[in-house]
Amino acid sequence: MAQNHDLLHVAERAARRAADHIRTVERPANPAEWDRKGAADFVTHVDREAERLITEIVLDAVPGSVVRGEELSPDATGADVVWVVDPLDGTTNYLHDYPAYAVSVAAVVGGEPVAGVVLDVTRDLVYTAAKDSGARCGERALHVSGVSNPTDALIGTGFPFKNPEDVARFMRQFPKILSATSGVRRAGSAALDLVDVAQGRLDGFWELTLAPWDIAAGLLLVREAGGAATDLRGARAPVAHGPIVAGNPTIHAWLLQALDAA
Predict the structure, then answer these.
(1) Could you list the pLDDT tens digit for every one of the 262 residues in the chain?
(2) 3 state SS of 88
(3) pTM for the whole thing?
(4) Strand partners, 42
(5) Cα gap 21→222, rounded to integer Å
(6) All domains of the chain, ordered by start, with CATH?
């Protein structure tokens, strides 16, 4: 089986190819061209083609692997290497030309991400991590923040727009976190939120419902940058559907307690 750094090189090549496609194709600005998977949950030919390009590259490079992608193969499993792929994380932002969307590609082995890339499309910044080798943006090593006092902390979140049953719970949590910190931000791309935790822009992050492709690469980036990423109970977050709490170790611990109290 390919080594983690080999898998990382493949993931980066695939992410770059998808990002090049997203940048060069005409953005479908007419809502009539947007397919709806659910309420406020869009997909277009841009997402699907980006995933096809990623799939072509990774399967050619690692025969016998499979792609678990948001648009074309969300349930794929059953190989030593599973590529967990979000070809366009932040589709709604992209469709509105709001500059916060990314390509996320992770290689998962035995249920754990071992190589991951998040590519910030509009800024052309590539964030990479390989298991036990740290996280980087180009030559710059990434480290979570050293903020330890919640009143100084900046926290990221995501609204439960796909899951109305979570709204009441979120609305109990939000004012508790907002009133105890220096602020809460919602950018609309969980992959980029986790990147911002990894590089210390955000001190913590939580969201109640995320998908495997939203988080696979971001989980590895946070952990390799010295942070923690768990579920709401503090158990190590798997590459699966569910909640995520992430942050530097101190703010992560505080955030878990604050969310539980709410």
Answers:
(1) 579 999 999 999 999 999 999 999 998 887 877 776 655 556 788 889 999 999 999 999 999 999 998 777 787 888 999 999 999 999 999 999 999 999 999 999 999 999 999 999 999 999 999 999 999 999 999 999 999 999 999 999 999 877 788 899 999 999 999 999 999 999 999 999 999 999 999 999 999 999 999 999 999 999 999 999 999 999 999 999 999 999 999 999 999 999 999 8
(2) strand
(3) 0.94
(4) 36
(5) 27
(6) 4-141 (3.30.540.10), 150-261 (3.40.190.80)
